[in-house]
Amino acid sequence: MRSTQCFLVVATVATVALACACRATSTRIATEPSDPAPKITSAAIDAGRPSASTNANAGAPALVTVAAAAPVVDSACPAGMVLVEGDYCPDVEQKCLEWMDIGHYHYFRCKHYAHLGEAACKSKKKIHERFCIDATERTEPGSDLPLNHQSWTSAKKLCEDDGARLCLTREWELACEGEEMRPYPYGWDRDSSICNADIDHGLGRIGRLVDHRAPASAHPACVSPFGVHDMSGNVDEWTTIEGAPRGHREVMHGSWWMPGRNACRSYQAGHGAYYAGTESGARCCADADAESPKP
To answer: How far apart are CA 265 and CA 182, in angstroms?
Structure first.
């Protein structure tokens, strides 16, 4: 099944505005509940946090989510970053067993995805990746709130000034979904309580959004298999589609606090390099040091 990705914004006055610009995304379906999420402490999140100024079944299974352990500090990466190493599948099948929305947006937010395992990868060959990524979204100086009002251009400069770079789209997706190819960073079943997402009241309107940003410590279980926080919800994060022309290469991943797709493979396109909204933030990547020789 193919569907066009759009982002739904519910306004405070009984109107619904559609901020849409988009990519067609494959949607498929979850038969196995995932493992319960282990407890993650906020202290583990706070360690090395980067800032702007620093270098199923038809019977509808119960919502069960899975989270990774706290970020692993690796000497191959700068402070505040974690190492991501694994194989990325360019073409993933994600099969949705149960949708949350009705009407025009029926194929929008998936409640339960099928756990397809390696069968989810439709590519003949995977791409091995090894890189570093910020453990949390870049924050305001002197604050634990993520930066916002960031354009692709300003986020790119922010990262480069800190000796890093904007993440490539495939890097961001691997860091979010892990080698298991999870639809959500925390698993296959959507849970609105895990991340700063699915807020459907007090949003404002396009260009006048109400700020609902939250620090990573407010949602400690919103973590990917590699220990990367807030890759679903909170603020949108700019990435670059490698090889795409200007005007098409600049996309935002993760969605923000409104009821959006919030899946690892979904992204917002069409804003261009200079859009900088209340919901748009930044996360950086960097090349990892050479792998240590194996004994």
So the answer is: 9
**293 within some domain:** no
CATH no. for residue 99? Answer: 3.90.1580
Tell me the C-alpha distance between 196 and 230, whole Å. Answer: 8
pLDDT digits (tens, 9 = 90+) for 77-93: 999 999 999 999 999 99
> 């080698």: which residue's tokens?
179
Taking only the tens place, the pLDDT of each residue in 26-60 is 333 232 233 333 333 333 333 344 444 433 333 33
> Measured between alpha carbons, how far is 227 from 222 in angstroms, rounded to an integer?
9
Tokens of 90: 């360019």
Q: Which range of residues forms the domain containing residue 155?
A: 1-288
Whether residue 179 contacts residue 89, with contact meaning beta carbons closer than 8 Å, is answered with no
**Rounded to whole angstroms, how far apart are CA atoms 103 and 150?**
33
Burial of 142 (0-12, 13-18, 19+ CB in 10 A): exposed
In a domain, 294, yes or no: no
> In whole angstroms, what is the distance from residue 224 CA to residue 111 CA?
18
- Domain assignment present for residue 59? The answer is yes
Return the beta strands (E) in 187-235 as ranges.
Answer: 204-205, 208-209
In a domain? residue 295? no
Q: Report if pTM > 0.90.
A: no
Number of domains in the chain: 1
Residue in 185, 21, 24 with CA at minimum distance from that of residue 107:
24
Helix (H) or strand (E) holding 152, with range, is helix 152-161
